[in-house]
Amino acid sequence: MRERDYRLTPQRVALLRLLAASEGHPSAADLYEQIKEQFPTTSPATVYKTLTLLKDMGEVLELGFSDDDNRYDGNKPYPHPHLVCIRCHRIMDPKVSLVQPMEQEVAGLSGYQIVGHRLDFYGVCPDCQRDR
Ligand SMILES: [Zn+2]
Ligand SMILES: [Zn+2]
User: Fold this and answer.
1) How far does residue 2's CA lie from ligand 2's centre (Å)?
2) What is the pTM of this model?
């Protein structure tokens, strides 16, 4: 098996910075548009590969959607609840206090050792409510 290359190249560092500064959970295409300004020779494939690598390193949380592009969170690279606007597709991190107890309850009742969860809330954001 090939050893994975975990070196932090300037492009990877730039992508991590973009992710850390981003709000709204950008897609790979969003990130490509931004990184192109600093590294014009970057290809979309490089961005995808780098995102996969950062995900494997635990630096980025990937959110997959069956009907939309994958989105990325570099601020909180661990499972946490998300709030998805069904109109503009913005994704927020809502403040929820009961996730930890819920996880303990699920673990206690099932006997599973919980390693993660996926909790998405869907709705219409305040901006989109105003625009109707
Ligand atoms: Zn919206
Ligand atoms: Zn998030």
Assistant:
1) 31
2) 0.85
